[in-house]
Design brief:
The complex is a heterodimer of chains A (about 160) and B (about 160). Chain A contains five helices and two strands, in the order βαβαααα. Chain A has about 160 residues and is mainly alpha-helical. The chains are: A mainly alpha (about 160), B alpha/beta (about 160).
Amino acid sequence: MGKPLASAEAATWLNEHFLSSLADIKSSVDQYFLGGVNHIVYHGTNYSPPQATWPGWLFYAAVHATPANPFWKDFKTLNDYVARCQSFLQQGQPDHQVLLYFPFADRNHQAGRDLLHHFDGMQGFENTVQFFLALDAYISLYQSLSPNNPFYRWTNNIYLLVSG
Amino acid sequence: MNGYLIKLFFVFSFFYPVQFLTAQIEWPPITQTSKPWTRWWWQGSAVDEPGLKTTMKWYQEAGLGGLEITPIYGVQGQEKLFINYLTPAWMDRFSFVLSEAKKLNLGIDMASGTGWPFGGPWVTESDACKYFTHKTYQLSGGQMLRRRAQISPGLNLLLPLPT
């Protein structure tokens, strides 16, 4: 709360090993930006001794941001783009003190064998923006109503519910 | 009053069209923080100074702003190169990284432990991650399980024994 950066582990596992392109990473990163993230941390540059034979030491997560990856020679172009976007996004002021992605609870209720849900590129949270637009509409409505209006009490309850 | 000011603004804006059109938003300066960072996996923490020096320069040239060190299990066959986390030898490599990072204007961050999920010996069994598992035993009628079910070596589970 009140922090200037919203950071996210990004581009962890978009496809099988070495199959993710810089374009795949960019599309994932753009969705993080739309979701309010302004500090991207890639999930993976594995240290590999320069003399190790190709493809060097690799980590299990499949997007390998390592010098051994053929995309490395163009990696800077993507990183410069991310830096330019973030240089603006990091100047912003948050509209809300807490950002909770929806429908987080629904995802936690999905049965399955994965012990840890992954949300690469904000997958599953596409409706968060719509939720907050609706929330903003509620708040405007609440602020515009007079306490004498019978509708006031009802919106008041919703407002208290969402603002904690 | 507000309406009046807005009208006034529009009237005057016609007198200064050039000024309004040429006012460009300037790109903020690119800093270490505005660049993307990356999690820097250290397998077995088997890092040495020449390797760190070379690779950190590559990372910096690729436009990365910082590295988040996360030591994890090592590469098979390289065991003699492993360095134990937070030992004096490990701290030496870490200090070297900090001095190189300063020269290259790279930020250095660390995970709150080793491995994934992050942890270490200070996470006791009561706080550690837990999971459910199961194993099937075939029993004939009247037969009893006499020992605790063993899922994996060292992991004994209490089961409701058939009577």
